[in-house]
Amino acid sequence: MTSIGPFSVRLVAVFLAVLLAWAVARLVAKRWLPDPTYKAAGGMLLDAVFLGLVAARLGYIAQWWEEYAQSPMSMIFIGDQGFSWWVGVLAALAFVWWHTRSIRALRRPVLVGVTAGLLAWFAAGAVLDLLQRSAPPLPALTLATLDEKPVVLNSYTGRPVVLNLWASWCPPCRREMPVFEQVQAQYPDIAFVMVNQGESAQQVLAFLEAQGLQLKNVLLDPASQTMQAVASRGLPTTLFFDEHGHLVDAHLGELSIASLKHTVSRRFAPSQQINTDKE
User: d(Cα 110, Cα 54) in Å, to the nearest integer?
Assistant: First the structure.
């Protein structure tokens, strides 16, 4: 499962963790602090979360600066879910510590709320990882190449597979195509399989030619069987399978080159990657 309705599962998990942190901070503060002082705990926690998110994003951009510098506008596109969470957590804790130096009574409830939120977030992450490990393997669907020759999707098993579901009418799909073109060239030992959903060979070929794209492993799925098989509810969807065909990660929405390379480097062993130095 990659989404709940139109929202990424991981995004929903973050929202619920923040909501729990806010509720716990207010509950603890209400018990220990007089009215209306306790109400400040919830507001301070939300301020800390906001600052933490900004710091986490900036930390991630610094880590992948070379990739983001290729497309500066992608720095503000947080849909790629590129965050250095440890930077954000440290920034949030520092914010709480600094702003409660003159109101020490607020420190305990806010920190308890932050702790509750972090525990919930880590627990949700563990559950999601478990669900991914128990997800069905790379499906054995018979699709077609651009010259309409049949190919079985799970025939790519034996090396890591990055499966992207897309359509030419989908704006975020169109924007991320050059990202996949670039990363395909940098990681030839990984199969980047681009499965078009619901369009004809003529439509796909016209799109690739108009955009000047040289993509490998472009497959046709006119009946959108793949979306049904992997329970995807939106495009683009990108799924990461290991060499045994087991799902190890999933992303709903547009990927930046930084977030795609980060997931590849995190999920696949270094021995399966190549030197990505620019020529």
Answer: 19
The DSSP-derived string for 40-108 is: HHHHHHHHHHHHHHHHHHHHHHHHTHHHHHTSGGGGG-GGG----HHHHHHHHHHHHHHHTSS-HHHHH
CB-CB contact of 197 with 221 (8 Å): yes
**Residue written as token pair 């799970």:** 154
What percent helix, strand, coil does the chain show, rounded to 5? 55, 15, 30
CA atoms within 13 A on the CB side of 61: 17
pTM of the model: 0.85
Which pLDDT tens digits describe the chain residue by residue (279 residues)? 556 655 677 788 889 999 999 999 999 998 888 777 777 899 999 999 999 999 999 999 999 999 999 989 899 988 888 999 999 999 999 999 999 988 888 899 999 999 999 999 999 888 888 877 778 899 999 999 999 899 999 999 999 999 999 999 999 999 999 999 999 999 999 999 999 999 999 999 999 999 999 999 999 999 999 999 998 888 999 999 999 999 999 998 999 999 999 999 999 965 444 444 433
Distance CA 203, CA 131 (A): 36
Other Cβ atoms less than 10 A from the Cβ of 95: the count is 20
* Cis amide leading into 236 (omega within 30): yes
State the maximum Cα–Cα separation within the chain, in Å, rounded to a whole number.
73
- Tokens read off for 181: 């073109």
Of 236, 197, 218, nearest to 80 by C-alpha is 236
SS3 190: coil
Residue identified by tokens 């599962």 is 9
